[in-house]
């Protein structure tokens, strides 16, 4: 039963109704600035599943403005049939009490309600909730709960399923014999105690009759009958522990380790139990809620965690809140991700994946880019995104962004082939972005090189979507801002001088030209126009106009050279 939509009202920071619609994707990522409610939303989902016991009264701190006159509403819509799209809606309300469940018509779901069985099934499949600040006792409790659920599932299988495996048949036989033997034993034991209980009954009755002057008072004490034991009885009698060791010590309790190791151990245990088939089924998959999984981890561990999250997300529904772009690995298959930014009044769907569009070269490019720049996927968290080809525009644009405090992410592609791979990533998540690349129609290039550069440009334009804008530097950025060609090894040094030198006239002019392009692309100055040799590419024809005259000119030169050689060769042959 899949969670399709979840809404929160009057729960902590959410004093107005706040909803998120989930797609069929298994991995949901919530991001946003601090204090916007990412963690609170996860907490609210977990709160929906918590049992409504007498001791389960929700703390006053959970009510918006800490006002218990408000009614907390946690509304969950579930898909009960993926084929038909049938859904049900259940609302949990807290009105200064321990919480009650209602249907969409505001009728409380009690024992005879038609949704009671469905609600019980939903609550029995409560999520695993992992927070950054879990105590060691809470982690141990999670481990024990997981272990108990595994034991429960195994015992339930013994009671309900038949197996042809001889070992399982033997275990089942032993289990059923034990279950039958306990009532027989208790019956024998009961016979020895019944006589004593009868004497107790007679003595107490005589005392009561004397105190209350009523000879008809009779008190009887009976020993309880036993039908054996249940699965829950066995689970209660079991316990589990997690020990960890290293070169310096062995079999130390997990509680003695650092917070990072404790949380990662829990996450990895869940992952491996899923992969071993010990948790979750195709029909009743549990959901995993992780609040800031990157907390307390060093950068390399965060990258390793990213792979684990993809593995977990491929097997069970996963919702995380995070501030770390590193958790999203561009080289992985992204057909499972949905990303939201939590705002004050709404959740904005930033990205929702579609079918995978990547070939082997794309995956290779993404892996290489991840090694070189692990924060390339920060685009998931930015308001605006631009992909640039080289170091010069990257350094310059980053300077202007920092100087003005803008939420713009610059991705340095380091080549046109990688630009294409990045465009596929961005297109898959249905986002808008800008491209700034060198046209590379350089007059010093040979004919074959020019044709290859033209093909590279065509490949970029072929991936353009309706919200993409593509800009070109003719023939490259350095020449476009009035400099000569700069060797790759000198580009960073040169652009740094351009940005910070306030004396050299050529550098001042170059800086002004870059800033004008920056302002025009992001529409920061309505008075700024795009000046040549920069160009906005609006069609294939633009590339033709930039390359064909140069290709034609070089072809004529080659033709003349060939003609002279042919004329000279004819007399020799005769």
Automatic annotation (TrEMBL):
Residues 24-346 form the AAA+ ATPase domain. SMART domains: AAA (SM00382). InterPro entries: AAA+_ATPase, AAA_GajA/Old/RecF-like, Bact_Antivir_Def_Nuclease, P-loop_NTPase, TOPRIM_OLD. This is AAA family ATPase. It comes from Gottfriedia endophytica.
